Amino acid sequence: MNRVYNFSAGPSMLPLPVLEKAQKELLSYGDSGMSVMELSHRSALFTEIITEAEQLIRQVMEIPDNYKVLFMQGGASQQFSMVPMNLLVKSKKADFVNTGSWSKKAISEAKKFGDVRVIASSEDENFTYIPKVDQGMINPEADYVHITTNNTIEGTAFSEIPDTGDVPLVADMSSNILSEQIDVSKFGLIYAGAQKNIGPAGLTVVIIREDLIGQASETCPAMLNYKTFSDSGSLYNTPPTFSIYMAKLVFEWINDLGGLKEMERINREKAQILYDYIEASDLFDSPVNKESRSIMNIPFIIPNRDLDAEFIKEAKASGLETLKGHRSVGGMRASIYNAMPIEGVKELVAFMKEFESKH
Length: 359
Ligand SMILES: *Cc1c(COP(=O)(O)O)cnc(C)c1O
Hints:
By secondary structure, this protein is α/β, with parallel strands linked by helices. It has 9 helices and 13 strands.
């Protein structure tokens, strides 16, 4: 069997040791004689899995005790509505930073529930940079400030988390959660769809400060209320059990590797290899402002030449998959999440060098 280097933006690669462990345990978890997929979510074995998953993510991200970890469904996209349904309830005003396609979707959903103001945007330059955000721009009465820490499509990321003072900071961290060390206490709420850095699609992780739970109106549907998940330990109804199990294996893998400090070191090294080559290359270019570059999603273009289709086709033939850029940006994009080994990045650069020499 030949595994390829998959540069997909999501769902994306999973660490090979995680897949192998899941394969080994697939038919019978422990000595249960059942697959995790067949276990009752109320069974002792699954209780152990979800409890360990929570303990591991708490340990790896150093999540303070006054935060809850919720395992939900609906993807980051459902959080675009859940966040305002639960938090946009006091002044009904929220401040958003618009840094790309996902921010825009979050903004348009929040507008259905209250008064949304965009306090900073990089739309003027096609989202190729991260705008400055300082505390003076923030409405002190806002229920929250929302940012997208890593812009999956545009390839930008906040290098510094804005200080929002007493106004809770909400972050869509779908494409860079667990990729580097962050100070969770700077945030009121963090959410992430699992399919980039956590595990298989179907699971959504929410990390929420306790005082922000329980503010939703009485008419808020149970399944859209954080309190429901918090009160039940994410077991109000059947959770995505297999995805939670896989996420647990991924958290274990990160922990065994040396935690987020080591994960970040590896991720920075991988990104550096690719950016250094793009900088030195006469064929390829980065469309993203240097200070705003993501270490997870790296778009690159071939200016003034019509070579994208050829590049993508030949790369695929060499075992380098899913390098096509998002349709809104064009060109190419290499998503190099946690599970992408450094060898994959080195092979990509070697392929790019060869392609450049031929053109
Ligand atoms: C992928 C992605 C989303 C959408 O996630 P779903 O789980 O498909 O809803 C939202 N925000 C960001 C930053 C993403 O990368």
